[in-house]
Amino acid sequence: MALILGSEFVIVKRPLTSNEFPIADSREVDLLIFGVTPQLGAETASLLRFAAQLPFAVLLLVESRSIASEIQTKAEVACLTKPFNPYELHQKVGQLLARRAEFSATGHFTPDHEDLELPYLDFPFLTRSAASLVRRFGAASLPLLISGEMGCGQARVAAAICNLGSLPKSRVVMNAVEIGEEYLGEKKLELSLRTQFTAWPTSLVIENLEKSSPAGQSMLLGFIEQVTDVRYVTTANTELLERVYRGEFLDSLYYRLATLTLKLSPLRERRDEIPVLAEWFARGYAKKLGVTAPAFSDDAKSRLMNYLWFGNLSEMEAVIARTLAFHRRSQIAGADLIFDFSVPQTADAV
């Protein structure tokens, strides 16, 4: 690399395991050339997700054409198959840097920072008591367990917490249902790459923790004992502490992940707040659908407040979105509300 590119560029070589990789300030890096071993080649999807989210161009050097065929060249990611000649390398570097300059000028290089609506951390999405706690928890950077019934918004709250603050953040999501040795290996690789080559903090969001098997719980405990340089945010659709007391969940894993706990209330405990929530969802979906935000009649509010809402916030959101999609009116009556997925016989003209 130094012989081929050194006359035009400053080249710095470090192994992946180095703790002194000079990318702490990514503004000083234009291109990362990453050698993909046969072992890493099996994790092509994870590598691509990681590479596409870096704030600089990435060139992957792969061992075989089969691996190269899985890598679809993007504006900021490309690959070369070994062996390659110096002219190929020089040409590819030039192309990537030119495209990188274009993307930097238009601001398209961004970290893994979704356009998340931070109001998911505020009332009315959360109760006032939960909203007062959540931002303090978000600033603490300690392991946080977010629990509640199905549909209470655990995943959205977790994602929003991971993106609190003005600085960029990085987030890796793990589904506890899929935990196994190979799956954890993929996540460990993804976390290692992010922490090595990004300047922003990384959070690991573990979803559906209550669905992990006993073997998966043991493997996950071993995983978090090895991976200590991330912030853990975990979600569950049940009260895990009760399962710990009954011997149905690994207590050492629970206490490692539940230094802080946030319990989200079901809608049946927020009956008086349901009209406010409905109007909040309606404003958001009215904007998406390009219609005027509607008002809810008294009978509509009464019907919403008396509905059982087994799916909690997720079910309410679906009901409001479905209703607005079919009835584009300035006022929603009780009879307009569509609680199931059946299509009404008639709908307002668009």
Spans of at least 5 consecutive residues whose pLDDT stays below 50 are 18-26, 106-116
Distance between the termini: 60 Å
Q: CATH first level of the largest domain: which class?
A: Alpha Beta
Give me the strand/helix succession. HEHHEHEHHEHEHEHEHHEHEHHE
Overall pLDDT confidence: 82
Largest sheet: 5 strands, parallel
**What's the CATH architecture of the largest domain?**
3-Layer(aba) Sandwich
Radius of gyration: 24 Å
What's the arrangement of strands in the largest beta sheet? Answer: 5-6-7-4-8
Q: Tally the helices: what do you get?
A: 14
Query: At the third CATH level, what is the topology name of the largest domain?
Result: Rossmann fold
Assign an overall shape: globular
Overview of this structure, please?
The chain is an alpha/beta fold and 350 residues long. It folds into three domains: 2-106, Rossmann fold (3-Layer(aba) Sandwich), CATH 3.40.50; 118-265, P-loop containing nucleotide triphosphate hydrolases (Rossmann fold); 268-336, Helicase, Ruva Protein, domain 3, CATH 1.10.8.60. The protein contains 14 helices and ten strands. The strands form three sheets. A five-stranded parallel beta sheet has the order 5-6-7-4-8, sandwiched between helices. Strands 1-2-3 form a three-stranded parallel beta sheet, with helices on both faces. Strands 9-10 form a two-stranded parallel ribbon. β6, α9 (214-226) and β7 form a beta-alpha-beta unit. α12 crosses α14 (312-326). The radius of gyration is 24 Å and the shape is globular.
